[in-house]
Amino acid sequence: MSELRQSPLHAEHEKLGASFTAFGPWNMPLKYGKELDEHHAVRNAVGMFDLSHMGEIWVNGPDAAAFLSYALISNMETVKNGKAKYSMIVAEDGGIIDDLISYRFSDTKFLVVPNAGNTDVVWEAFNQRIEGFDVELNNESLDVAMIALQGPNAAKVLVEQVAEESKEEVENLPYYAATMAKVADVDTIVARTGYTGEDGFELMIYNADATKLWQLFIDQDGVTPCGLASRDSLRLEAGMPLYGNELSRDITPVEAGMGVAFKKKTADFVGAEILRQRLEEGPKQVIKALTSSERRAARTGAEIYAGEQLVGTVTSGQPSPTLGHPIALALVDTAANLEEGAEVEVDIRGKRYPFTVTKTPFYSREK
Q1: Do 187 and 38 share a domain, yes or no?
Q2: Which pick of 67, 185, 227, 311 has the fewest CB atoms within 10 Å?
Q3: Same domain, 106 and 211
Q4: What residues form the annotated binding site for substrate?
Q5: pLDDT tens for residues 68-79?
Q6: pLDDT of amino acid 2
Q7: How far out from the chain centre does Cα 176 lie?
């Protein structure tokens, strides 16, 4: 087994007493203190995450949009400059290789951000699909750091450090958009996407500038360093899928509820024939949300029953720190016809507990 990669901020995490965990090929902070405190910090103020394990692949050239429309399931040619799009890349058989976000900066320039454990396979797939397209690929994944500020006070904390000429643009940046700005005199890609169910920003900088920005924000009142444990509980409350749990090579975007991404797409793309057929036939399984008034939480792999019939498996589950009761995402058989409000039982260590099918997100901030 190869040695785990370290974030350019690893020494900063050690100073803060972080405990670490393997995440893909990276050694990343799991938590700094109590993960519940970190979770609540994001819900109530500002949490700061090191996301330097995420990939950064530039796609440049006259055919950049056409290439990504072929390589991914979505129509990327309709993405406006300055905006971002969530999509998926699939194998020839339709299985999901990764879910990712693409940012369009100009007619000929995109930045694609894959997940940590999938960056290498996405890079390989892009290179296999490039033939016939006038594009240049540049993988900066090991050269770029990413810091995320998430929470209701994230905009206020960030804008205070943004150069005067960019303050208004950053403060008013729409959701799923990105821009360039100087943050504490550091050239920064500022994106407003997020994975927590809160307002927030991702700051992409070169590794050499990462420590400066991290230390700048960690010294601000109300900013709490947060690890992967709270990131997972936050994304689950927001009903967002995690690759390796809800998403994998064993299911297609149709099962994942992403058929809408290519439903009206006429252009060819990798996996198109199989996915269009699957969409027409309908999925045999779908991702559903479950909630319970009991105390016992369903964990990944727990079996789900409708009466005595096994109808699915929990893909993610834990007690919701914000809501105070167990929540879960699951892959269930469509034949079971489990609509919102349906009652099921989940086998937790040999005993069945009642759960109810609900809708996502489990949590969303009132506007």
Answers
A1: yes
A2: 185
A3: no
A4: 202
A5: 999 999 999 999
A6: 72
A7: 12
Condensed to tens digits (0 to 9), the pLDDT of residues 205-219 reads: 999 999 999 999 999
- CB burial string 301-330: b at 16+ within 10 A, e below: ebbbbbeeeebbbbbbbbebbbeeebbbbb
User: Is the pLDDT confidence value at 366 over 80?
Assistant: no
Q: What is the mean pLDDT of the chain?
A: 97
Task: Classify residue 137: in a domain, yes or no.
Answer: no
230/299 same-domain check: no
- Residue 220: pLDDT band (50, 70, 90) is very high
Residue 225 and residue 102 in one domain: no
296 vs 201, 293, 310, 352, CA distance in Å? 34, 9, 20, 10
For residue 143, report the phi and psi dihedrals to the nearest 5 degrees: -105, -15
The annotated binding site is made up of: 202
Q: Residue 261 and residue 1: Cα distance in Å, rounded?
A: 37
User: Do 48 and 148 fall into the same domain?
Assistant: yes
CATH, residue 226: 3.30.1360.120
Q: Which of 237, 269, 287 is a domain's end point?
A: 237
- Name the residue with tokens 């992403």: 258
Identify whether 254 is part of a domain: no
Among the candidates 237, 270, 295, a domain finishes at 237
- Whether the CB-CB separation of 327 and 236 falls below 8 Å is answered with yes
Q: What is the mean pLDDT of residues 89-96?
A: 98
Domain count for the chain: 3
Cβ–Cβ under 8 Å, residues 165 and 173: no
- Residue-wise pLDDT for 113-161, tens only, equals 999 999 999 999 999 999 999 999 999 999 999 999 999 999 999 999 9
Looking at the fold, whether 204 and 178 belong to one and the same domain comes out as yes
